[in-house]
Amino acid sequence: MSVSLSASRTVTESYHSPWRLLLAPAAVVAAVAHIPVTGEHLHEAPYMGVLFILLTIACLALAAAAVAHDSAAVYLGATAVCGLAVLGYAATRIVAFPMLADDVGNWLEPLGIVSVISELTVVASAQLALRSNSSRPSR
């Protein structure tokens, strides 16, 4: 049984979308941007350090999946992972999280800007791939 995204596509069918060529490097940038601050966060706010490790792994896996076999599942996963990362960044700038109160108002942290731009690029390219392929007949 396959889950249907539209009348002509399944969630696991490869799209071969040109948008994957933007998504994959943006996801790698998002992953790499978190590496320098992971150790610091593991020490100061261990839960956030662990989330950074998981985000780094997820972004690298999504980049590889987009290149190897891009599908609706990959694009939906990329939208969810990177969309939640952007929301998390904004939340930590608005509300004092445990052990991260000094992040409130710090919108212009350089690696944070790199992360947000790359994550938004992942979300945008994933959504464009989904939209551009939803009307194409399956191969």
Q: Can you offer a commentary on this structure?
A:
It is a single chain. The chain has 139 residues and is mainly alpha-helical. The chain has one domain. The chain is 70% helix and 0% strand. The longest helix has 25 residues. The radius of gyration is 16 Å and the shape is elongated. The relative contact order is 0.20.
Task: Please write out the topology.
Elements: H1 20-44, H2 46-69, H3 72-94, H4 110-134
Helix pairs in contact: 1-2, 1-4, 2-3, 3-4
In short:
The chain is an all-alpha fold and about 140 residues long.
Keywords:
single chain; 4 helices; 70% helix; elongated
Number of domains: 1
Number of strands: 0
Strand content: under 5%
Largest sheet report: none
Can you count the helices?
A: 4
Alpha-carbon distance between the two ends: 19 Å
Derived structural class: mainly alpha
Helix content: 55-70%
Structural shape: elongated
Radius of gyration: 16 Å
Order of helices and strands: HHHH
Global mean pLDDT: 92
Unreliable parts: none
